C-alpha cells in the first residue's frame, strides 16, 4: 500500500473511532458514572474548548516539531491516554482524558486534513479551470 493510501486508511479509521468516542462518552458518563445532563453539558463544553485550543496551536507546534514528529507524538499520546482510560475509570480521569484526546485531535486534524485534501482539491481546481 502506498503512502497516500495508508494515510487515508488511517484517517478513516481514526475518524470512525473518534466518532464513537465523542458520541459514546456521554452515554457512558450517564449510565456508568451517573453524570447528570448538566454535568455532561459541562463535559462537552470542556472537550470542545480543548479541541479549539489544540487547533489554534497546531500551526505553531508543527513549525517547532515538524509535522511528522507532531503527528506521531499526538497518535502515541492518544493511544496512551485511551489505554489509561480503559484500565482506570473515574469521573475526574475521564474528564481529563477526554479533554486531552480532544486537544490532541485539534492539534492533529489540520495536519491530517492538509495531507488528505490536496488530491480532491486539485481535482476540483482542475475541473473549474477547464470550464468556459
Q: Can you describe this structure?
A:
The chain contains 4 helices and no strands. The chain has 132 residues and is mainly α. The protein has one domain. The protein is globular. The mean pLDDT is 81.
- Which range does the strand content fall in? under 5%
The secondary-structure element order is HHHH
What best-fitting shape do the alpha-carbon axes yield? globular
Number of helices in the DSSP assignment? 4
State the share of residues found in helices, binned by percent.
over 70%
Quickly count the domains.
Answer: 1
Radius of gyration using CA atoms only = 18 Å
Tell me, rounded to a whole number, the average pLDDT.
81
Number of strands: 0
Distance between the termini: 38 Å
* Low-pLDDT residue spans: none
Structural class by helix and strand composition: mainly alpha
Which helices and strands appear, and what pairs or packs with what?
Blueprint: H1 3-31, H2 37-65, H3 67-87, H4 91-129
Helix pairs in contact: 1-4, 2-3, 2-4, 3-4
Amino acid at each position: 500500500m502506498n503512502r497516500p493510501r495508508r494515510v487515508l486508511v488511517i484517517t478513516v479509521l481514526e475518524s470512525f473511532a473518534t466518532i464513537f468516542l465523542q458520541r459514546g462518552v456521554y452515554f457512558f458518563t450517564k449510565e456508568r458514572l451517573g453524570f447528570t445532563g448538566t454535568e455532561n453539558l459541562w463535559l462537552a463544553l470542556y472537550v470542545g474548548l480543548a479541541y479549539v485550543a489544540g487547533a489554534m496551536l497546531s500551526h505553531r507546534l508543527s513549525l517547532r516539531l515538524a509535522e511528522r514528529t507532531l503527528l506521531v507524538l499526538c497518535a502515541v499520546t492518544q493511544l496512551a491516554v485511551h489505554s489509561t482510560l480503559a484500565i482506570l475509570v473515574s469521573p475526574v480521569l475521564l474528564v481529563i482524558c477526554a479533554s486531552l484526546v480532544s486537544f490532541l485531535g485539534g492539534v492533529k486534524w489540520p495536519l491530517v486534513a492538509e495531507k488528505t485534501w490536496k488530491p480532491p482539491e486539485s481535482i476540483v481546481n482542475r475541473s473549474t479551470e477547464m470550464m468556459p
